[in-house]
Amino acid sequence: MKILLTGSTGQLGQEIIKTKPSNIDLITPNRTELDLKDYEQCVKIVHDKKPDWVINCAAYTSVDKAESELKLATKINSYAPEAFTKAINSLDSNLLHISTDFVFNGEQNIPYVESEIKSPISKYGYTKALGEELITNSIKNQDNATILRTSWVISSRGKNFALTMLKLHSFKDYINVVSDQIGVPTNAKDLAKACWKVIALKKIKKLPFILHWTDSGVASWYDLAYAVGEIGLELGILKKTAEINPIKTIEYPTPAKRPKYSILDNVNTSKLIEMNPKHWRKNLKNLLIEFKNDQN
């Protein structure tokens, strides 16, 4: 099976490469070979490579910068997915598109199910919601596309909140961290496994058009920052930890608004792909063990 992977240098892309089944021919174009801002190039690479699947992990993820770079974010997060969708229509191949909890406004206090109405409160969220809409409107056969939403992706490499906190713990005495935004961290490694499960199962059974996958549990950014210090100390990665000071969102103004509560309900996906999500603390420990091993 031939698969075209976008965003291969990102957190999820790297894990998809590492967990690739042996029977997969994975095509991983770099930014020179595939410019996601170029609609025609997005169509052309699919027509040229003729993959069985496109896994679209690539995204403009600078949430705050998107407030001032809406045109750029829209090209990458909205129009590139539309281009891939139109290209696969003519080949009768498939698309797995990664989306986000930021398509919701965070105003409810129960987990968001897949069918919930999208209502983004940031321009980043808007571009991701628009990407979903353009896929929905462009796909000829919905069985050929899957939108997989996730949240708060972290891994043992790259730029992410967990590794940023690990660094801050090592040289700061105090860290102010927002405690009133609730979500769940998701280990990119298990997210990649869920992606491969979806692709394998789509051969043998019908899956919903939209799926949710995250680690299990509930956390604030404060909880995650605290756990990074606690587990980092336990594993000997840190010699000391900073004191974490919980603050409210209003005390840490940012250009983009964030959802206050963005837990995604992944019960349906878990049953369908026969994979139980691990608790985020367990996956955080696994991630930090891998980080430690990579340093040696």
Structure description:
The chain has 296 residues and is of the alpha/beta class. Helix content is 40%, strand content 16%. Strands 2-1-3-4-5-10 form a six-stranded parallel beta sheet, with helices on both faces. Strands 6-9 form a two-stranded parallel ribbon. α1 (11-18) packs across α6 (188-201), α5 packs across α7 and α7 (221-234) crosses α9. The longest helix has 22 residues, at 70-91.
Secondary structure elements and pairings:
Blueprint: E1 2-6, H1 11-18, E2 25-27, H2 39-49, E3 53-56, H3 70-91, E4 94-100, H4 123-138, E5 145-150, E6 153-154, H5 161-171, E7 174-178, E8 182-183, E9 186-187, H6 188-201, E10 210-212, E11 219-220, H7 221-234, E12 243-247, H8 267-273, H9 280-295
Parallel strand pairs: 1-2, 1-3, 3-4, 4-5, 5-10, 6-9, 7-12
Antiparallel strand pairs: 8-11
Give descriptors for this structure:
296 residues, 40% helix
Structural class: alpha/beta
Strand order of the largest sheet: 2-1-3-4-5-10
Radius of gyration: 19 Å
Share of helix among residues?
40-55%
Distance from N terminus to C terminus (CA atoms, Å) equals 35 Å
Proportion of residues in extended strands: 15-25%
Number of strands: 12
- Largest sheet: number of strands, sense, barrel closure: 6 strands, parallel
Mean pLDDT: 96
Query: Helix count?
Result: 9
Residue windows where pLDDT falls under 50 for at least 5 positions = none
Shape summary: globular
SSE ordering? EHEHEHEHEEHEEEHEEHEHH
